[in-house]
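A common beginner's mistake is to predict each chain separately and then try to dock the pieces by hand. The better habit, illustrated here, is to supply every component at once so that their relative placement is modeled jointly.
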Amino acid sequence: MRQFRNMIYPYAVWTAIMIVLPMLMILLYAFTKAGNDVTTFRFTLENFARFFQDAVFLDVLKRSLVIAVVTTIVCVLFGYPIAYVIASGPEKSRVFWILMITLPTWINMLVRTYAWVGILQDDGLLNRVFALFGIGPFHMMYTTFAVVLGMVYNFIPFMILQIHTSLSKMDKSYLEAASDLGANRVQSFLRVTLPLSLPGVLSGITLVFLPAVSSFFIPKLLGGGQYVLIGNVIETQFLTSGDWNFGSAISLIMAVIIMVSMYLTRKVDTDPAASGRRE
Amino acid sequence: MKKLFALLLAGTMLLSGCGGGGEAAENAVEKYGSDTLKLYNWGEYMGQDLISNFEKQFGVKVILEYFDSNEMMYTKLQAGDAYDVLVPSDYMIERLIADGMLQELDIEKIPNIVNLAEGVRSLPYDPANTYSVPYFWGSVGIVYNHNNVDPAVVEEQGYEILRNTDYKGRIYVYDSERDSFMMAFKALGYSMNTENEQEIQDAYNWLLDMNNTMEPVYVTDEVIDGMITGTKDIAVVYSGDATTILQENEDMSFWMPNEGTNLWSDAMVVPANAENPLLAHEFINYVLTYEASLDNSEFVGYASSNQEVLDELSGEGGLFAENEAYLPRAGYAKDEVFRDNQVLKKTLAELWIKVKAAK
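With all components supplied together, the output reads:
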């Protein structure tokens, strides 16, 4: 086995170039400022101070977190029942439904999101259908509803897949044992199925929350630029105002927030009391 | 026998056809040093047959790439990508010249420069066409639905109509710090190139007020579809896009505010690191011909830099004769051209995101 150890090196080099180096660059940019004629840059905390001292940026941060949390909750509420129904079906239908869930993700996200513009517009598909029943038109584009809808639509497959995986891995004999011991269906769901599927829910939450909190083109397209989220601010720093230092600092702040929330999620996951595995 | 003969004839014709092409390509290599031109232009910014006609006529190949912002183009250029012809906007050309990233043009190789329209001669960023030759030009104005908005109100209020709460929830605003601050500066009677802090603050407050009272929707190119389908009643758009909107939806009208506007132009330049400057000159010269300019302007709807084409399309019986957006207003004192100013740009970008983020 020993001789295979050397085969790690290419991966180590790859990781260093593709992951570690960009991270270090962001770190460097975040703590520096373009310098004067003598030095090319100088170290500073100005970028962070600028972010935390500005009420507008803090508002944007708050708004991003709220929208990401709402998206995640909606994804759990809809994703769990869907995953549950799929997982309890026979093998063949399971494969079919999982394919149906993943199919849209084969198409570029931008294109799919654009499609929603056509559906939600004032004279779009949905309003035309409503008109057939004599209701509407409803104003849906450029609202919080549209932004959350776009995010849920784009990210819910991650939630469903995660929950489905942990549900289908579950040993069915636990449920038989529960009913042998006199638990009704609700009780066996709450005390057996739910706790056992919790790791899936938690990794689903991570997979939905992360892209939701940093997404920038969904609010741009469906929110009409009115729903400026933290991703949009970062995008502007890099693409329009060319302030890479400030952009990196915001990215770093986001990275820290995400790491903390992931740590907390992991803690819930490993904490036996919270996951309901009683001794 | 007749059939065979026809077949043979067709065969020889085919062969000679190929030979002809090869010869032209060989000539091109001899004449220009290479038979490939790398062109970096805006998306949807060329006539349908422009490239294929140029390729045929000169026996060359054109490699096309598109950008969607001047800044994106600049970043790629800075990274060392080599192109033969670029079509950046006024202020970006100014910046490229200052950075020494362009080469001087050999005007003798561009005889068609005499065709240039009056409105794009001696532009402030390059008055003697030392580095650039105009491609399209235009202004920025207000497109409105004349069934829902009284033309008299638009003409009287100009940009202020974007703060008129009668039209709350019915406006599109162009999502770029440059264009939004332009209308705020103009509405307040300032220069759009101002560096005065108080004036910038006033413009910021103007935009903030608009954002907070009017429920504007910020868009870029979606504005074209949005106005064609009549989703909103008022939008501030580039004149060339306005031309397209007016062609497609006859309920729409165009107004260039009395307060002045941004008189912009996009021009062809040759970067310092171009691999094939000779062919680049040939291309620039070709674009200025009547046929190429006509194809471009008819198809894209932006105002031509060729005077003859401009006159024909906007004149009686022309394609855009009834379209008030096509012909930009030249020589109006309050209209200005954007100047390159990196510091100002950064300030405005920062303020613009704050305007949009305010709720």
